[in-house]
Amino acid sequence: MTLDLFPDHDDGAGRREELAPGAVVLRGLALPQQAEILAAVDDITSRAPLRHLTTPGGFRMSVAMTNCGARGWVSDRRGYRYDALDPESGRPWPPIPEVFLELAANAASEAGFEGFAPDACLINHYEPGTRLSLHQDKDERDYSQPIVSVSLGIPAVFLFGGLKREDRCLRVPLGHGDVVVWGGPARLRFHGVMPLKAASHPGLGMRRVNLTFRKVG
Ligand code: MD6
Ligand code: FE
User: Residue with the nearest Cα to atom 6 of ligand 1?
Assistant: First the structure.
């Protein structure tokens, strides 16, 4: 259940739903740029292909990932970290496209975080059955900066918990074009994605693509 405090608020930038202090869903905010965003995702994945990373515990992640930006999030037997180079190719990650930077800054500003300039964009690719287990985003140096998360393609149920793993979770449906901004007192909340249900999206088919923008510092 999501709490919609301002159901009638729509200034053209998308309907706003507050999840908790510091966390807001901006419904449909990415829709106007969707074609440009999807073309940019195709370009990035042609240069830095999606891959299934291994967790430090030795498990293959069901989400396929790649990155763009000065820093890319990677995981292997040695741990989780940000790396300037794609370990598969040894080359820098592709740069963050201008359309991504504008959307991320605009979303952060809508949520009250001015001047957001991400240096990392993780691209997550889901298929039906794929899930992301409950975690905190804490591999970044600077927790004063928010995270901006853009959902595209088939719907997912986002689990939004508290500051302790055992805190109960809200279940937040996220659809094509929805943007979540997450910072301040919410920055270290546990969260995850439930296993995706089979569905098809007109542009993306049976896939969900999530972009998460961060300032790693
Ligand atoms: C996803 N998102 O939606 C995974 N993390 O596919 C995340 O792990 C996430 O959406 C921090 C803030 C927002 C997010
Ligand atoms: Fe996360």
Answer: 210
Q: State the distance from the centre of ligand 2 to the C-alpha of 105, rounded, in angstroms.
A: 18
Question: Does pTM surpass 0.90?
Answer: yes
- At 142 the pLDDT is 81
CATH for 114: 2.60.120.590
Domain that holds residue 59: 2-214
Can you tell me the mean pLDDT for 196-209?
A: 97
Q: Which atom of ligand 1 is nearest to the CA of 63?
A: 6
Atom of ligand 1 nearest to the CA of 192: 8
d(CA 180, CA 13): 13
Output the residue whose Cα is nearest ligand 1's atom 8: 192
135 CA distance to ligand 2 centroid (A)? 6
In the predicted model, is pLDDT for residue 11 greater than 50? no
Q: How far apart are CA 132 and CA 63, in angstroms?
A: 7
Domain count for the chain: 1
Half-sphere exposure of 120 (CA within 13 A, CB side): 27
How many angstroms separate the alpha carbon of residue 43 from the centre of ligand 2?
24
Could you give the CA distance from residue 28 to residue 150 in angstroms, rounded to a whole number? 10
pLDDT at 205: 97
- Does position 178 have pLDDT exceeding 70, yes or no? yes
